[in-house]
């Protein structure tokens, strides 16, 4: 008879991350094989009583297996947070500032692959907060703030994403200084003053820095560029909020798992595209009055939706003329605001296996990778953040 400490379901089993990774790869291949079998063209026209119900059940079981396997690779983000807490003491010595780090949501679960790549990007954000964001002790006293600067490091799961935020109570981003540097580098036309939410992304440009000198913590112009590169690799997005004199926050939105994606499948002309379901805000069929041309040449359009103006991202080549008001619009949410995708058809919602692009294919415009569909076809997984930045350029 089993005692209280002998319960079969009460223990933990150590499993190598490599073995879990191998299992995920095999489940991905199994999922593709199941889909290819169920949708085989050789089955067309055959009378197979009960086949449709059995195929549906097999697909549902396959999805449950994928979800269960993904959960095996989830770890608490506390491992990353502990390392960052230790670095705060070093930052205090380097800057001469007094800093309090408030870590919240350390028990939030993330994919092990994500956790392994989070430390360096988050460290760069913390360094920028400590070096550029927080004032000196004297400066804080003069501003009527507590002597000890505060940085909040918080993690929270929201749907199929994990949001990790680094927020400080310092001076905030310097709009005028960033704008001047952006205009100096030709990133913003002279005389223009874009809205803060449209200006902040320039700090992620390679080599961009407003620092007068180089410190041990920051000022080399590589920190935020490293962050942006890391988030693209993780299929994540970044949102920045700043209030002058009150502080700034950088929020990283990262998929809960990198293995399988819930996507909406779209068709535009002969090509197939996939958009992660958690980025989809709504799908509409616009009228001609909803679509406006914004450039003299007619090559730029926006969608007017409930009083909001949303840029339309083009999935076709610019030289191919097209009336976007004749199709369907999928409105996607990004860290820089919504973007509308003009497509011909919304085909399906699927959980897909995504394969990252490598070599020359890595340069494919605004793509995270390729999704292998149930039908055996291949769809491009769209990075809506990069699509929006291209349209705003």
In short:
Helix content is 32%, strand content 30%.
Strand content: 25-35%
Percentage of helical residues? 25-40%
Number of helical elements: 9
The count of DSSP E runs of length 2 or more, i.e. the number of strands, is 18
Q: How far apart lie the N and C ends?
A: 70 Å
User: Largest beta sheet: what is the strand line-up?
Assistant: 10-14-15-13-12-11
**Major sheet details:** 6 strands, mixed
Secondary-structure element order, as H and E? HHEHEEHHEEHHHEEEEEEEEEEEEEH
Could you tell me the mean pLDDT? 81
Structural class: alpha+beta
Whole-angstrom Rg: 24 Å
Unreliable runs, pLDDT <50, ≥5 residues?
A: 4-8
Shape: globular
Write structural notes for this entry:
The chain has nine helices and 18 strands. It has 393 residues and is an alpha+beta fold. It has a six-stranded mixed sheet with strand order 10-14-15-13-12-11, covered by helices on one side. Strands 2-4-5-7-6 form a five-stranded mixed sheet, with helices on one face. It has a five-stranded mixed beta barrel with strand order 8-9-18-17-16. Helix 1 runs antiparallel to helix 2 and helix 4 packs antiparallel against helix 8. The longest helix has 22 residues. The termini are far apart. About 1% of the residues have low confidence.
């Amino acid at each position: 008879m089993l005692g209280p400490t002998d319960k079969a379901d009460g223990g933990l089993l150590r499993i190598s991350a490599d073995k879990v990774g191998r299992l995920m790869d095999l489940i991905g291949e199994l999922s593709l094989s199941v889909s290819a079998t169920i949708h085989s063209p050789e089955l067309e026209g055959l009378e197979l009583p009960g086949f449709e119900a059995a195929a549906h059940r097999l697909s549902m079981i396959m999805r449950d297996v994928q979800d269960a396997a993904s959960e095996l690779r989830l770890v608490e983000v506390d491992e990353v947070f502990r390392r960052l807490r230790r670095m705060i003491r070093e930052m205090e010595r380097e800057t001469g500032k007094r800093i309090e780090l408030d870590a919240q949501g350390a028990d939030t679960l993330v994919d092990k692959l994500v956790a392994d790549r989070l430390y360096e990007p988050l460290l760069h954000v913390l360094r920028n907060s400590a070096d550029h964001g927080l004032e000196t002790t004297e400066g804080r006293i003069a501003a009527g703030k507590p002597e000890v600067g505060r940085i909040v490091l918080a993690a929270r799961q929201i749907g199929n994403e994990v949001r990790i935020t680094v927020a400080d109570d310092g001076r905030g981003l310097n709009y005028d200084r960033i704008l001047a540097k952006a205009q100096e580098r030709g990133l913003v036309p002279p005389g223009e003053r874009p809205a803060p939410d449209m200006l902040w992304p320039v700090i992620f440009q390679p080599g961009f820095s407003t620092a007068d000198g180089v410190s041990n913590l920051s000022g080399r112009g590589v920190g935020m560029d490293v962050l942006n590169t890391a988030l693209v690799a993780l299929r994540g997005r970044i949102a920045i909020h700043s209030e002058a004199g009150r502080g700034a926050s950088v929020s990283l939105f990262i998929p809960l798992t990198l293995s399988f994606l819930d996507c909406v499948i779209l068709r535009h002309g002969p090509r197939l595209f996939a958009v992660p379901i958690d980025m989809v805000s709504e799908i509409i069929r616009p009228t001609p009055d909803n679509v406006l041309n914004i450039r003299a040449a007619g090559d730029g359009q926006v969608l007017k939706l409930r009083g909001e103006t949303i840029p339309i991202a083009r999935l076709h080549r610019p030289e191919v003329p097209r009336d976007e008001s004749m199709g369907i619009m999928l409105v996607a949410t990004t860290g820089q605001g919504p973007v509308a995708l003009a497509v011909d058809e919304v085909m399906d919602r699927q959980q897909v296996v995504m394969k990252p692009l490598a070599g020359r294919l890595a340069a494919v415009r605004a793509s995270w990778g390729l999704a292998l569909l149930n039908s055996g076809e291949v769809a491009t997984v769209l990075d809506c953040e990069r699509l929006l930045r291209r349209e705003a350029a």
